[in-house]
Amino acid sequence: MRDPYTVLGLSKSASEADVKKAFRRLAKVYHPDQNRDDPKAKEKFAEINAAYEILGDKDKRSQYDRGEIDAEGKPRFQGFDGFTRSSGPHAGGFEGFNFSFGRGGRRGGGFDPQDLFADIFGEAMGGRAAGGGGGRARAHYPRGEDVTVSMTITLEEAAGGGKRRITLPTGREVDVMIPTGITDGKTIRLRGLGEPSPFGGEPGDALLTIHIAPHERFTVEGKTLRQRLSVPLADAVLGAKVHVPTLDGVVSMTIPPMSSGGRSFRLRGKGLPAKDGAGDLIVTIDIELPKGPDPELEALMRKRRATAETSGR
């Protein structure tokens, strides 16, 4: 048989998880039930299974890497076929030999390929694990693959929740409930809405990633919202109460006299909702000058500039 690492397409540094993942992927591709018209699929599948019997068992893999067993799981030794000689007081007789059962055998609770086979394919390969009832647990079916999908929502939907209908990669249309206060990049797991299992197991899940569309007024920073608000020059100089739009309506905010442009005000609890309390809305004011000529304002500014120049001498 070929090198197990080559059969599974792995390097010798592959982790246990890598080995298992490679086996599951190849086993699904070459499973005889999926390739009824390919006579070579059964042979390929048997080779994949044999390779995993070596690499999927920690002890056997170590023995193979050290050169103690070959690709079929048989000991590398000189002399008798089927057993190896050991040292000890009874080395002269059969008591001095350790019998090797090779692939498909089992001793002392070691790796059993039948257990593995049943675990991977379950009843799709004959119901219960080989050996009949015998107290063995019912085989597990492998799950279907997970699918990924994204959805873009408005900031208002993120703040208040809602329901959206989407089409999954499987072609199925479903209604998705948007949780109140969901943040950008959050993933929602839709259980059982992924790919079906080719072996009769449970379907995979759909992983839905939420993206929040840019808003024309608000900028999102976690659960904090920011916005810029234009106020007339007179309100900035004399002070005033101004109307500030928020996600849940318009509120009143007081601007103190002589407020400079770029000054920020915090409206607590007017940001995005969250489990640990709603965020804040930070309002930064921009001073709005008259759109057309204003002789009175221009005269006042000339007077103030002249006064400043005189006092600066």
UniProtKB/TrEMBL annotation:
InterPro entries: DnaJ_C, DnaJ_domain, DnaJ_domain_CS, HSP40/DnaJ_pept-bd, J_dom_sf. Pfam families: DnaJ, DnaJ_C. Keywords: Chaperone. Residues 3-68 form the J domain. PROSITE patterns: DNAJ_1, DNAJ_2. Gene3D superfamilies: DnaJ domain, Urease metallochaperone UreE, N-terminal domain. It comes from the Bacteria. Coiled coil: none annotated. PANTHER family: DNAJ HOMOLOG 1, MITOCHONDRIAL-RELATED (PTHR43096:SF52). The lineage of its organism: Bacteria, Pseudomonadati, Pseudomonadota, Alphaproteobacteria, Hyphomicrobiales. This is J domain-containing protein.
